[in-house]
Amino acid sequence: MGLSYLVGTGNRISTALNVKIQDIDFDEAVIYIRKVKNRKQQIIPLSASLSSVLIAYLQIRQGDPEDYLFCSDTGTIGDKRTYQQLVADYNKNMESIKQAAIYSDIPLLKNGY
User: Fold this and answer.
1) CB of 35 within 8 A of CB of 77?
2) Structural domain boundaries enclosing 93
3) How many domains would you assign to the chain?
4) pTM surpassing 0.85?
């Protein structure tokens, strides 16, 4: 879920971890970013696809409006290092998939297809 959010918004991990449930306005299709690196609040668009993913996530996750969107098991703000590792693992897996796709095409090229 966190990866979908990062890709869908372009937020830094530390910015994403500071988003609270109440910062997402599904009716107006925006996300209010209140705590960012440059200290200026931002309003970013919420795409329909990310909105659908977030709604499904929140139905499972539940929580109060004041809760962090991405929290730890104890309900506190999520750990930056944990999310950095998730992104690194995802990138590593994607590289493996790309390599497998490249190698799977080689026999087709040798056979003239």
Assistant:
1) no
2) 2-110
3) 1
4) no
